[in-house]
Structure formats: structure tokens, C-alpha cells
Amino acid sequence: MRTVEEQLSNYKSVHFNKRNIVTHFVGIPLIIWAVTVLLSLNTFTIELTNTHISFTPAIIFFTITLLYYFKLHLKLALGMLFYIAINLYLASLVSVMENAITIAIVVFVVGWVLQFIGHIFEKAKPAFVDDLMGLVIGPLFLMAEVYFSLGLEKTLHDNITSSAIDKRRKIEAES
Q: How many domains does the chain have?
């Protein structure tokens, strides 16, 4: 398994342009929220000795994702836990609406349009094109950027940035 530094530096290597990063701070949360709504449309209940436990595919998906984030980096995973809990709550409010699917699909498309506009500014293809893990690392990258902007995890920031610059130079040299 690749380290958090390797994965974040790979992602960062195609995310230096400020306008691209701004589009990602809007687009990625929109995409995540839309997927959460879609995965929250069905609820399953398990009965265990007079106790009913209800869950959705969204809860299962994000539990697995959070376990992966915790394996990568404890502090970033704690931020993601907070974000995902809010995301699940907000998605649950919409998932019961009659037009939830339409809302989710529109928001999903808008999120992806923003992502691709950002990569026009960047003049680089999205990270997931070469590595599908970019789809999972994107949200963690944004959390890392929040931490870095708050002055947290300076060593991680420096290591990621240095490695990302090297990767970007290699990409540009190959083109």
C-alpha cells in the first residue's frame, strides 16, 4: 500500500493552479454529497435481539473509506470523519424527498463540470485518469489542504509539495 505522502503528492502534482484547487473545493464536495444521497436512498435494517440497526449503502461505503483514511493518516482521517458525518446527515435530509434522484444527478454533473473546468486551468489531466485511487484521495487532499492552510502538518505539506513538484516536472518533460 502506498503511503499518504505518495498518494497526496501524486494528486498534488496535477493540482498547483489556484483556480483548479478552488473548483475542487466546490466540485468534490458536490460530487461526494450527490453520491451520498444516491447511496442513502435505500435503508436496510437488521434485527438483533430486540434491537433494530438501520444502515444505508452510504454508511457502508464511507465506513470502509474512513478505515482506509485512518490507515493512511490519523489526523487527516479525524477531519474526514467530521466531514463525512455532516455529509451523511445533509444527504439524509434530501434522500427522503420525492425528487432526490434528480437533485443528486444535477449536483453530481455540476460537480464534475467544475472539476474538468479546473483541469483546463491546470492544463493537466485529472489524477484519477492514471490512477483510480485519485477518486478516493481527492477528498483527503482537500482535507490536507485545509490542515495546511491552518498551519497544521507542516512536515507532511513540505514532503508532499517537494515530491509533487518533482512529479510535475517529469510529467511536463514527457509531454
A: 1
